[in-house]
Amino acid sequence: MVALELINHMIPPLKPTDDGHKAIVWMEELRMNQLPVIEKGRFLGFINEEIILEENDSKKPVNQYYLDAEQCFVTEHQHFYDVIKVAAQHESQLVAVLSDSGIFQGVIALEDTINAFAESTAVQEPGAILVLLMNQRDYSLAEISRLIESEDVKILSSTINSDPKDAAMLRVTLKLNKSEVSHVTASLERFGYRIIGRFQEEEIKSNDQERFDLLMRYLNI
């Protein structure tokens, strides 16, 4: 899914001539703490509720307040992973979307991106999750895929993160298309891969059911 498909058309942009009061009213209605500001189709940045309240003068036009995160944008064809990355870099709940020619198209709320991820095949499809720990120089997704697919299992998604305890190591998280993967873990371990996490859907559902049963018993007391 690309940025253009995630634009939230319920979030309007402000003009530089709009005043702080209008910005605050819109933010309250939308339950947000920031809004985009544009001028003649050009994205200027975001105005934050906190800045307006600190100024203690909501009659001032928006262009007299400090605007931040003017670089918090993606182009319309970028992937939603890029949206999450940009939002995290700027610690913003909104990301502006620009056309290839730099014209403002709208904004994406971070929660819309999270919803898009939750609806993706990798999340919705049942299957186990494996977490592997390995040296960076030993990482090869092609080799890992070959071993897993030799066991008649597919990788739905993969993510890579540096190990917080050792920068030379990687944590590779794999979502697979099957829940029973003991034969996969055996194969990976046979070829020297270290598995530090294993989560199977049946186990998760069982744990959730146990918690639900405990809660119901508590409420019946």
Automatic annotation (TrEMBL):
Highest taxon of the lineage: Bacteria
Listed InterPro entries: CBS_dom_sf (IPR046342)
Matching SUPFAM superfamilies: CBS-domain pair
Name of the protein in question: Cbs domain containing protein
